[in-house]
Amino acid sequence: MDNWTLSDWCDQCHRKGGLVVWTRTKTADVPEEITFLAGEALADFVLGKVDAFEVAGLIWCSWETPEWYHLLNSGLRVTFVGASDKDSNLLALGYARTYAHLAPGEPFSYANWIEAVRAGRTFVTNGPLCRLP
């Protein structure tokens, strides 16, 4: 375990039935500063070891936007999942939520929710969920 790579950790998570979500670790001001996708992280996305990309706070022209476009420009289709990025009481827990669409008739379970996220059947919101007739 002393020399595990990110890929090793992703594989271990998947063996245990988990979901690998990449989270933002650094704010990139310009595309040239996107260094976390220049190494193993990008390779793990390409190899399908990462299931989703976390967006925090949902300010759509925010910190994650350069990374998101970098992934798209690399030809990758990456699922978004929401996160509140809560580090104080100024932001409500669950501010950003991820909804996953299960297949018709599929019972709600953690495993089925994970598979829906992996399949990219999600949307992220910080607003109310309205159903219109």
Write out key terms for the chains shown:
single chain; 133 residues; alpha/beta; two-stranded antiparallel ribbon; 5 strands
Describe this structure in words.
The protein has helices at 6-15, 40-46, 64-73, 110-118, and strands at 21-22, 52-56, 79-83, 97-100, 122-125. The model has no long low-confidence stretch (mean pLDDT 79). With 133 residues, it is α/β, with parallel strands linked by helices. The longest helix is centred in the N-terminal third of the chain and has 10 residues, at 6-15. Helix 2 (40-46) links the parallel strand 1 and strand 2 (52-56). It has a 3-stranded parallel beta sheet with strand order 1-2-3, with no helix packed on it. A two-stranded antiparallel ribbon has the order 4-5. It has 4 helices and 5 strands; from the N terminus they run H-E-H-E-H-E-E-H-E.
Helix/strand order, N-terminal first? HEHEHEEHE
Total beta strands? 5
The unreliable regions are: none
N→C terminal distance: 53 Å
Mean pLDDT: 79
Give me the oligomer status: single chain
Strand content: 15-25%
The biggest sheet amounts to: 3 strands, parallel
Instruction: Give the strand order of the largest sheet, numbering strands 1, 2, ... along the chain.
Output: 1-2-3
Secondary structure category: alpha/beta
The outline comes out as globular
Sum this structure up briefly.
It contains 4 helices and 5 strands.
